[in-house]
Each structure stands twice: as C-alpha cells, then as structure tokens.
Amino acid sequence: MRRFDVAAYTGVVVLIMSAACAAESTPLTLAPVSESVRLAASDPTASTVMPLPEVEEPRTEFETLDPDRFSDPTVIDNPYLPFEPWTKLVYKGFTNELEVIEHRVVYTVTDMTKVIDGIETLVVWARDYSAGELAETELAFFAQDDDGNVWRMGEHPEEYDGGAFVDAPTWISGIAGAHAGIAMRGDPQEGSRSYSQGWGPAVEFIDRAVVGGFQDETCVVAGCYEDVLIIDEFNVEEPGAFQHKYFAPGIGNVKVDWSGSDEGREELELVSVTALNGADRAVTRVAVLELEAHAYEISPDVYGLTDPISG
After folding, report:
1. What predicted TM-score, i.e. pTM, was given to this entire model?
2. Measuring CA to CA, which residue among 91, 96, 119, 115 is closest to residue 4?
3. pLDDT along the chain (311 residues), means of 10
4. Taking a C-beta distance cutoff of 8 angstroms, is the pair 116, 110 a contact?
5. What is the number of other CB atoms lying within 10 angstroms of the CB of residue 250?
6. How far apart are CA 113 and CA 121, in angstroms?
7. Which residues partner with 91 through β-bridges?
8. How far from 64 is each of 101, 145, 153, CA to CA, in Å?
9. Cα separation of 20 and 8, whole Å?
C-alpha cells in the first residue's frame, strides 16, 4: 500500500526541486509531533489505533463513474475533504520500516484544472520528504459529483532515491484500463461496504477503503477536532495491513496511523494549514507546470494522452 506516489527524470530534478523549495519561501517553523506519535515511533512494532477492522469481500473491483453527475466538479466542499484553492497543509511524523525515519508531507491545493475522462478536475500538488530529502512529488486530480462524493481521477507520481529519478507509476482514469475511485464519500456511514480509491492495475494501484467509525475528539499539533471520521485503507493483495486516516469536518485529513502488518508503519499529524499569498501561488504554478511538462516526457502512453493543465 503506497503513501504518496512520486517520480522524476534526472534532467529536470533540479528544476522541480528548486521550484519546490521556492514554493515554500515563507519561513515555516514545524512544531514537534505529539507525544503519542513520538513514543510510537520508538517501537516499530507498535500500533496506536484500534484492532484490525473486518472487511467484507468487495462486490466490484472498481467504481462506476457517471460523467453526467458532475455539474460543478471543481467545487469540492465535502465536509470531510474540502479542497479550498491555494491552501497548503503540512504534515509531520515518522515511518517505521527498517529504522525510524522522519517524514514530512506538504499538500497544496491549486486553482488549476485538468480534464480527465471527460470531467474537469482540480489539481493538487503533493511533496513527500523522507529524512529531509524529497522522496516523491505528485500531481493528483480530484472532482466532486452532485452527491458530494469526491473522486480521485488519476495521479502522476514521481519517485526519487538520493535525488535520482526512480519511477513514475502514473494512472489516469479512462486510459490503460484505469478507473477513477472515491477519495471520500458524500455521506460516509459506518458499516457500509468498502470502495475503490482508484483502479490502476498497470501500476498496481488497487487501494480500497472502508469507513472505520467516528471519534469524538482527535488532537494533533495543529489543534483538537471533534466528530472525526476514521477511514481504514487497505489493499486486497496485502491482507492484514491497514492504514488509518482521520478526517476532521471543515479541515480534511488531520492524522495518519496504521495497524496490522503494514510495512510502511507511517504516522503523521497535521502541523499547519496556510493560505498561500500571491507570490507563493505564482511559484507553485511554475512548479506544477514544470512537473506536468516532465510527465509528458516520461509517460507518453498515459499522461501524454491527456489535455494540458489550465488555469
């Protein structure tokens, strides 16, 4: 089960990484993670959440997309996954693989759009840092249907190791057998069946999710939140491994945890939510368009079949 997908090509690594750094030109002091996450990181076998959830066999491998049900797809105001353009969310925590590694994720919602599978989507830019080094940078595409469901329409992740390009497992709905998935239900209900978060078998993206329940209060570095929704994510090919994500109303994802045999053992907490100013928005646009230009180079058979980002 992947965290955030990423990829890049050696010739443009410097351009993308320099733009990424510039997009964070406003100094940001990251508070330390909470005591619970710090202590859990010291024990790579520990799980800080509930027992393993019980998940029914899925009825279908992927979700059915109805393009006629997207009247205003780039207005994403789902209470548990609102995407306000030019909002930057920063997460900090650890991964517990062979060793405890500091982990930071920067998630930026833009006002840029891209048509995928006949539907206009909102562009989100994610960057994943491991031990202070860029490990992934990704363009992800989302749209909300008329029932309030937020759909993940595709992803272009670029993965790095030691500053060198490793891979780009791109999947786009409607291309190479891929299908859009649900990032958040419009009305998430405990006890409902699991759903596909995206179906990209060519790159082994077949993650699923199920509503795990609700928590009265969840406290992280950024603050305390009430009526928090817990989503249990899993992959049918990795039985017994779960990633748990906590979603606060009006904010979105505020915490990531794990249970079972999840090899990533990722723990993250929301540290800050920032509205980008004009200068940071301009730099972000440049970085996003540079990343897309590179996507056309390295993924001609998938990303190369899409229309360019607009905005």
Report:
1. 0.84
2. 91
3. 38 40 40 43 45 58 94 98 98 87 96 98 97 96 98 98 95 97 97 94 95 96 98 88 95 94 84 97 98 98 98 85
4. no
5. 10
6. 5
7. 105, 270
8. 38, 12, 12
9. 13
